Amino acid sequence: MDTPANNYSATPAQRALDALTENTEDAVALDTLASSDVLVPVPDDADEEEAAHPATVALPVLEQPGGRHVVPVFTSEAEMAGLLPFVSRYRLVPLGALAAQWPAEELSLSIDASSDHRLTLTSEGVRTLLARP
């Protein structure tokens, strides 16, 4: 049986997430992840103009138990369908660029939340670990 680490169909971002489950300070994996594109679901309440504007990204915010807020992003359509099967619109965004403009409020980022290689970062973690110029 193939595991994500030896699955040749895994994306570079998924392989980086797998590496980070072993070592959360793996600089190569963090750089790979930061330079990868992720799928950001377009919130249902975003109008077409807002959803298509190239300079802004409407973030889908989910409330977690305990009132914590998290933005889900995904490394592939299959990963997105695993957690949010009814999402019909998404934006493809470089993760490092998204992180560089991350809101200052306490808003976590969850990458591939329903997978074995999921990674959730606090807002500070997003800005310090993934933001790239």
From TrEMBL:
Please state every residue range assigned to the domain named SseB protein N-terminal.
15-127
Q: Which Pfam families does UniProt cross-reference here?
A: SseB (PF07179)
The entry's protein name is SseB protein N-terminal domain-containing protein
- Origin organism lineage: Bacteria, Bacillati, Actinomycetota, Actinomycetes, Kitasatosporales
